[in-house]
Amino acid sequence: MRRIKLLFGLLLAGFAVMVLSTRCEKVTFKEDVIDTTTVDTVVISFSADIKPIFSKCTSCHGGAQNPNLKTDPYNALVPAYVTPADSINPAGSIFLNWLETDGGHKPRTTTAEKSLIFGWIKQGAKNN
Description:
The chain has 128 residues and is mainly alpha-helical. The chain has helices spanning 2-21, 46-50, 73-77, 94-100, 111-122. It has a domain at 46-122. It is elongated, with a radius of gyration of 24 Å. It starts with a helix and ends in a 6-residue tail after the last helix.
């Protein structure tokens, strides 16, 4: 019984040394930067480019939570979340800023998708 206690004590001490000797390292992430340089060179289509982005959001935004992106995503977004005035300053769009921050939860949009949304807003948020 004495050996078991000694072995357990040594294991516990070894574990404590291991935990105390490890150090936390600061992890840095690459900043999420929207590419605004290419939005003027290509026409961005809502139906082909933007609507598919929101297909992964419909588990929550499919009727239970606004905006409802499942049945009619364009009319759910425009003009309630994206306004014609946003095309003048897409970076100031409430919707785009919501995607850039957490908006109450973590949006699942990638940087490339945010760049497409930026371009779509800059091009007038058309239903095309």
